[in-house]
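Two proteins follow. First one:
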Amino acid sequence: MKEDGDPPVTETRQSPVQAAGCVLWRRSPVDDALEICLVHRPKYDDWSHPKGKLKRDEDPLDGARREVAEETGYAAAPGARLPTVRYLANGRPKVVHYWAAEATEGGFTPNDEVDRILWLPPTAARNRLTHPRDRALVDALLAA
């Protein structure tokens, strides 16, 4: 399910770091309300959406689904394409491709990269996110 115009990523020394992720959501098992999954990364002590660097020549959507599975333990059913986020990471440009994705099956097991996840209503998720650039993705999900 690659979007038109999204070729496989091939990095060079001068190119930005390429990454992908999802704004992962589900319906609450308690009241069927929308919940968004946030991951806590102990290395950075931050809360973010599941995402990660793409492997060489990896399709961005495939990478987003792989990263969601690795970080949350859930399979992701991708939906709408969300805004691409660009920023500097350790002085190097980074480009992160995002999709809205429904969590389908699976379950979280803590690991070295992600030690906790939270399922939160959109307003609470927006407030918990560490980086302002991630907050706009919650709004994009709600608009999609």
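Second one, unrelated to the first:
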Amino acid sequence: MVKNIWSAEQIRAAAGYASMASLDRRQALAGALGAAAGAFLGPLVPGSISPARAATGGDLKIMAWEGFTLDAELKAWREKNNVKVDAAIISTQDDVHSKFVGGSAVRLDLAEYSQGFEKFYADELKIIKPIDIAKVPNFNPDQIYPQFYQAPTWYWDKTYFAIPWVWGLNALVYNPKMTKPITSYKDLLAPEMKGKLTFCDDTIATWPMIARIAGYGPKFPNLTKDEFKKSFAALGPYRDQCRVFASSNGDTISLFASGEIAACFSVWSGTPVETAKRGVETVYAVPAEGAVMWCDAWFTPISAENLDTAYAFMNEAVSAKPQAEVCKAVNGGSVNKHASALMDKATRDLFDYSNLPEVFKKSPLQGQPPRTSDTYATYDEWTQAWADFKASF
């Protein structure tokens, strides 16, 4: 990954860079899952490893996406330890680092970052405290899938800067009553799909796939300016198949429910669950070209005060039972090897846990385009091209 270079002035403009992380998968959960504000933390889940240092109680201030606060999943643990959690909800990733830019840092004991923000947070803004991995004993090779254990998204220089805890895939979703099974993105170009395709305004889900269909998938996010131009040019035939553009995941769900679309180019894996609530069957499919992976990680900000409780919270977050429960709630994937055995079939079948190396091979965890570069297309250039594409609808 190309290291982003930021000046003090550019840091103040970081909100534009971070808005890419306004993931629609979370927005679709709004209202369906309650925030954890005012809940009480506290008991260790049976079968988990006791933390190296017990939770000491008191207030735990966290910042997480809607539905990702582990309110229900860690209820018993919270009550036993008698800790009060004050949860602020993330709408976009810039909500997090804005707490540390332009003045005194706001106290946060735990917060989440999405892939692509790790070096920005740790090396440039310097708002992350390194993790003492001994205090998160459940995060060990016997319990955690190797793909998540020491990946560079949260581990470098022999140091952990965050703890990955939930992930998922964005890929094709289609209505089987309106189209034959879709096994490749090329199937979206069939004549019978004319006017039945849409794109969702989720850049994390869409940008890597734009590069992939043009033949530059492994190079994303570092495409040369020529490769970048060719990638957007390759969207032309897909644009011709569209009648409308979906402004959010919720909009995509509504378009499926009304029968206006038969497929969405790349969207949240939980979309079929939401369309089913409206009486419409849709199918989530990982085509031959693969899917786009996302992963969230907990980190301890520089302003953290209740570190013992923060470590204990992270320790429980990656234990098997809470992992199984939260994955069902958010249609996510587990980092814990033993969680899938505790899942219901629908949650377990979302991803191929028996062959995660192949999942990562087809859908690697990738970052974001560089903010500045003399060689590669920058984030601003991607943003402008995406804006032009949306304006064409």
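SUMMARY FIELD: The chain is about 30% helix and 15% strand. The first strand starts at residue 40 and ends at 42.
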